[in-house]
């Protein structure tokens, strides 16, 4: 009689036990899959942003020839002026995208710190860079760069 009671108990609790095991396996698999997808996205963003930065790299050296925003405005060649202006705006947009994905936790703090360090090189060393940035975020301009009022990825981490 006792064997029958034990067998009945086993039959009664087996589906619940298997259900719990199934849930645990699902949670573990889901967490592993989420981590893998996050790493894949971070790698894609890393590759894309570094490729885009490489396209800017040589052109940003032109900042050595222009010290201030007023000097940028004084460049005789309208084509050169527009090219430099658009280069900086495009670079600001790249920085904004990197910051956006960092805030969305799609890129790691370590990766963001590395990129931010590079961004700060230009911000600290070139007045034209700082002046144009300040002009860009004045008024409601900050919204174009995914920023909240009072936030600035050049002035805070």
Characterise this structure.
This protein has a domain of 105 residues. Helix 3 runs antiparallel to helix 4. Helices cover 76% and strands 0% of the residues. With 157 residues, it is mainly α. It is built from five helices and no strands. The chain is rod-shaped, with a radius of gyration of 27 Å. The longest helix has 59 residues. The model has no long low-confidence stretch (mean pLDDT 83).
Along the chain, the helix and strand elements come as HHHHH
> What's the story with the biggest beta sheet?
none
**What is the CA–CA distance across the termini?**
71 Å
**Fraction of residues in H or I helices:** over 70%
Shape type: rod-shaped
The rounded Rg comes to 27 Å
Q: How would you state the average pLDDT, rounded?
A: 83
